[in-house]
């Protein structure tokens, strides 16, 4: 087909999902144009440098790398020539106020053995729990992850039927915390597994135990570190898109999705209107409706679901190397339930927060000056409901420094030689995520998976959505899957 008679597709947003959708649509034979509001690609998965330190600004835990690889493969390229990663083992270092340090290794055997050595749970019980998470994965993968949940025909398949027959096994009727309390004697093990609810911005005390499947993905399937940091995922995909002929327009926010006779026909930017056969929005679906189609009545029930948590992140240049820390570190709150209650009910910040510290200079030494470390220090916070964020940031900084000092038995305050900070307002303004929620709708009820927006519009022809705010959900691999599901729906 010549360019002149190719069908055309507009992609709004060059987040990881928009990039994947653009590459897939190009490979389907479309002429693809990406419109990105920022001067750079990647959305949440981007990078900044300051005073000799480089920081990944958003995601840091990377699973299921084959979903990146397959974009190169379908474009006729060897992924290893463009994007590389290493498998992590151990994956995490967990720190508790009682002085315990637990390393989470890859694979059922090693994970269970190491955890059993330092906790009150047996290797057999831990291994049995991991087998259960594997069962949940087996029963839910095809139903939730590989197909649109919103097409009736997808419900008349064997995997869905099998899923319904085994509904009791996927944990839909218990909370994560409920299931984990039953599985483990040691409260530290409960905390370690409850933590996975934060991967989609939910509370383990409210989210269904089905989400224990996330532990399976990380512990059994493995976690990886992309060489050059997380930004190499989106940087390499943006380069791939450009190399195969996708057209990118940066610093070009879309102001309106053009709709005629209930059909998407193009987009309007500050440069004017452009017609396209198909429009895919990678912009947060809530804001796609509210800002780009204000005249269209969106699906209120789906759009008005409670949103996920957000984060306060300090990007600290630390002039010291902490040998006891690894790439991924967690300093756990003493009272996890009180922490989540503060975030989701009080919509405030907790005085003893669980801190996640990511240090890429452990693997990429050039990310920090010699003898120094680049800390991404993150705490979960509520999404933006107009709270006094400047006050919250000042408070959070104190709480986090005091907690790090207790865990590391030193004073980190004089070691912080450079600092940047992100809060929900900044996340909102940089990526158009509604209320600065990182993960779209929260999963704080058992129907949440069904209440994410579909990958297509039910009312407007040729309008599609992809990314963390729609099916199947947030995280890098789910956003890559989202693009796959979306583009598979397009002829
Ligand atoms: C602090 C933080 C930590 C995280 N940790 C992890 C993690 O460890 N592991 C993991 O897998 N995931 C993690 N995530 C989640 C993950 O980053 C996201 O799920 C994923 O990057 C979202 O990608 P996306 O393509 O849906 O959207 P986004 O990255 O939000 O991209 C949307 C893009 O659309 C653009 N845009 C919006 N509106 C318009 C418009 N009108 N016109 C043009 N362009 C527009 C935006 O500028 C942006 O570039 C984290 C996220 C954050 C913020």
Q: Report the portion of residues in β strands.
A: 15-25%
Average pLDDT level: 95
Largest sheet composition: 7 strands, mixed
Distance between the termini: 15 Å
Ligands bound to this protein structure: flavin-adenine dinucleotide
Uncertain segments of ≥5 residues (pLDDT<50)? none
Describe the structure.
The chain has 491 residues and is of the alpha/beta class. The protein has 15 helices and 20 strands. The strands form five sheets. It has a seven-stranded mixed β-sheet with strand order 8-7-16-17-18-15-19. Strands 10-2-1-14-20 form a five-stranded parallel β-sheet, with helices on one face. It has a three-stranded antiparallel β-sheet with strand order 5-9-6. The longest helix has 23 residues. The radius of gyration is 22 Å and the shape is globular. The mean pLDDT is 95. Flavin-adenine dinucleotide binds next to helix 1, strand 15, helix 14 and helix 15.
Outline:
The chain is α/β, with parallel strands linked by helices and 491 residues long. The protein contains 15 helices and 20 strands.
Secondary structure layout:
Layout (H helix, E strand, L loop, with lengths): L7 E5 L3 H12 L3 E5 L11 E4 L2 E4 L5 E2 L2 H9 L10 E3 L4 E4 L5 E4 L3 H11 L4 H23 L12 H8 L10 H8 L3 H8 L18 H9 L1 E4 L4 H14 L2 E3 L4 E7 L2 E7 L2 E4 L2 E4 L3 H8 L7 H4 L6 E9 L9 E4 L4 H9 L10 E5 L13 E9 L7 H20 L7 E7 L1 H8 L31 E3 L10 H13 L3
Parallel strand pairs: 1-2, 1-14, 2-10, 7-16, 14-20
Antiparallel strand pairs: 3-4, 5-9, 6-9, 7-8, 11-12, 12-13, 15-18, 15-19, 16-17, 17-18
Helix pairs in contact: 1-9, 1-15, 3-4, 4-5, 4-8, 6-7
């Amino acid at each position: 087909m010549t360019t002149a008679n190719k069908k055309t597709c507009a992609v709004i947003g060059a987040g990881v999902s928009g990039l994947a959708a653009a590459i897939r649509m190009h490979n389907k034979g479309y002429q693809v144009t990406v419109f990105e509001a920022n001067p750079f690609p990647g959305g949440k998965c981007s990078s900044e440098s300051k005073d000799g330190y480089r920081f990944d600004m958003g995601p840091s835990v990377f699973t299921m790398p084959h979903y990146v690889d397959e974009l190169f493969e379908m474009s006729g390229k060897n992924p290893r020539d463009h994007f590389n990663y290493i498998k992590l083992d151990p994956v995490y270092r967990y720190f508790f106020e009682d002085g315990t340090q637990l390393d989470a290794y890859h694979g059922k055997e090693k994970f269970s053995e190491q955890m059993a050595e330092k906790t009150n749970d047996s290797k057999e019980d831990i291994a049995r729990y991991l087998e259960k998470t594997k069962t949940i994965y087996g029963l839910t993968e095809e139903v939730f992850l590989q197909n649109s949940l919103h097409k009736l025909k997808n419900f008349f398949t064997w995997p869905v039927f099998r899923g319904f027959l085994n509904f009791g096994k996927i944990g839909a009727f218990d909370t994560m915390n409920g299931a984990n309390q039953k599985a483990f004697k040691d409260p530290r093990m409960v905390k370690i597994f409850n933590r996975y609810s934060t991967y989609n911005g939910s509370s383990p005390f409210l989210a269904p135990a089905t989400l224990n499947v996330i532990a399976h993905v990380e512990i059994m399937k493995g976690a990886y570190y992309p060489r050059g940091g997380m930004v190499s995922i989106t940087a390499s995909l943006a380069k791939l898109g450009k190399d195969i002929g996708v057209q990118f327009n940066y610093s070009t926010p879309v102001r309106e999705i053009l709709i005629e006779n209930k059909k998407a026909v193009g987009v309007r930017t500050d440069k004017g209107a452009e017609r396209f056969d198909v429009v895919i929005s990678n912009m947060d679906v809530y804001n796609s409706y509210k800002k780009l189609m204000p005249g269209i009545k969106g699906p209120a029930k789906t759009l008005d679901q409670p949103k996920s948590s957000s984060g306060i992140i300090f990007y600290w240049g630390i002039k010291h190397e902490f040998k006891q820390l690894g790439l991924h570190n967690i300093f756990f709150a003493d009272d996890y339930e009180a922490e989540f209650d503060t975030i989701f009910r009080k919509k405030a910040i907790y005085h003893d927060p669980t801190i996640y510290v990511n240090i890429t200079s452990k693997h990429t030494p050039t990310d920090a000056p010699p003898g120094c470390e680049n800390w991404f220090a993150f705490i979960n916070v509520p999404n933006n409901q107009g709270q006094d964020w400047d006050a919250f940031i000042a408070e959070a900084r104190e709480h986090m420094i005091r907690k790090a000092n207790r865990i590391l038995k030193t004073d980190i305050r004089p070691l912080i030689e450079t600092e940047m900070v992100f809060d929900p307002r900044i996340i909102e303004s940089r990526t158009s995520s509604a209320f600065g929620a990182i993960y779209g709708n929260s999963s704080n009820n058992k129907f949440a998976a069904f209440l994410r927006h579909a990958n297509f519009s039910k009312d407007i022809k040729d309008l599609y959505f992809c990314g963390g705010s729609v099916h199947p959900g947030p995280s890098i691999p789910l956003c890559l899957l989202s693009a796959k599901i979306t583009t598979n729906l397009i002829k």
